[in-house]
Amino acid sequence: MKATAIANANIALIKYWGKRDKDLILPYNSSISMTCDGLWSKTTVEFGNYDEDTIIINDEELKKDEKDVLGHLHRIKKMAGITKNTKVVSESNFPVAAGLASSASGLAALTLAATSAAGLKLNEKELSMLSRQGSGSASRSIHGGFVEWLKGAEDDGSDSYAKQLADKKYWPDFRMIACIVSEAKKATSSRAGMAQTVSTSPYYDGWLKSIDKDLQHMRKGIHNKDFTLVGSTAEHNALKMHATMMTTKPAIIYWALATIEIMHAVMYWREQGLESYFTMDAGPQVKILCLEKDVSKITKNLSELGGVKKTIICKPGDGAQLTKEHLF
Ligand code: PMV
User: Fold this and answer.
1) Domain with CATH 3.30.230.10 in the chain
2) Model confidence over 215-273: pLDDT tens digits?
3) pLDDT score for 101
């Protein structure tokens, strides 16, 4: 009753922001992402004769108020009819809870490891739907490459899951450079941030009205490997999401000074003929989209900016997988 899974984080090119159902985690809009090799979470789950449930994430025991992970584990135990206590150990190779999609990789790895330790045999669609209930973006990390999470229309969530648009080999020179500008835990979780946006931002309706066009452009851009269309659509979509965040009451501004410095730099490089685009999630890190041929020039330019602490270069990666290398 022990299993270990590895899942990569994914970065949304068209963002998910806002839930129509908070319990089942059903989104108001569909979203599209790239699963990133090199940004992974590895999780081992064992059901056994433990005195209590223990969850250790990056060497720290989970605090009792961090209910998402515990709640998800109980959901899976209930599905499988397991009453034994659980030990979970998880590690990620990048900062947790700082807007680098750690919940996506963490919850996808937990879902695959826990269902497998419990002896449940779920297909990818079922795994995606179950991961979604732990963290919306985790539904996309089940698959590799380029992925779309369909918002669905049913109240029970049975048609809200992620499917692969193209596998990791489809566009091998597509790159995402994650620029770490802060390793601090963010002040407003995406869960709280999106709820506040839906209820107080006057721009949220505009976000929803314009999303179908963005999704169409992104699907077309990926299909045609049209980097300009993919990059420009992703950048525009990220700015629209941040506009809804900034106009909530109270305002949520996830950007740091270095975030803005990088955004300006990317726009300037573009004017000079170095084509790249930025996208940011619920945190200050900037992810730069570019092609492989421009990576060394861009990383050199980034090293000359004061605020960039670290860069991680990602290409399209694999979906969640089981491994025999347990963490305990
Ligand atoms: O599923 P969560 O709670 O990690 O929310 C993800 C929200 C964004 O990262 C901002 C957008 C997205 O689609 O990943």
Assistant:
1) 2-169
2) 999 999 999 999 999 999 999 999 999 999 999 999 999 999 999 999 999 999 999 99
3) 64
Q: What share of the chain is helix, strand, coil (3-state, %, to 5)?
A: 40, 25, 35
Tens digits of per-residue pLDDT, 273-290?
999 999 999 999 999 999
Give the C-alpha separation, 286 to 3, whole Å: 34
| pLDDT for the residue 60 | 85
**Range list for CATH 3.30.70.890 in the chain:** 174-314
User: Of 147, 189, 188, which is closest to residue 170 (Cα–Cα)?
Assistant: 147
- Contact between residue 47 and residue 82 where contact means Cβ atoms under 8 Å apart: yes
- Looking up tokens 């851009």 gives 221
User: How far apart are the C-alpha atoms of 150 and 219, rounded to whole Å?
Assistant: 13
Tell me, what's the pLDDT at 97?
Answer: 53
Pocket lined around ligand 1, Cβ cut-off 6 Å:
12, 15-17, 31, 101, 103-104, 135-137, 190-191, 281-282
Q: Summarize pLDDT for 159-174 with one digit per residue, the tens.
A: 999 999 999 999 999 9
CA-nearest residue, atom 10 of ligand 1:
281
pTM, rounded to two decimals: 0.96
> What's the CATH fold of domain 2-169?
Ribosomal Protein S5; domain 2 (3.30.230)
Report the pLDDT value the prediction gives residue 98, as an integer from 0 to 100.
53
Our mutation pick for probing the ligand 1 site, out of 26, 35, 190, 254, counting the most ligand atoms within 8 A of Cβ, is: 190
Instruction: Tell me which of 8, 10, 17 to substitute to probe ligand 1's pocket, judged by most ligand atoms within 8 Å of the beta carbon.
Output: 17
* CATH code of the region 174-314: 3.30.70.890
Residue ID of nearest Cα to ligand 1 atom 6: 137
Mean pLDDT of successive 10-residue stretches along the chain, which has 328 residues = 97 98 97 95 96 89 73 95 95 70 88 98 97 97 98 98 98 96 84 96 98 98 98 98 97 96 98 98 95 98 94 96 97
Distance CA 328, CA 323 (A): 13
Amino acid code (one letter) for 226: D
CA–centroid distance, residue 227 to ligand 1 (Å): 23
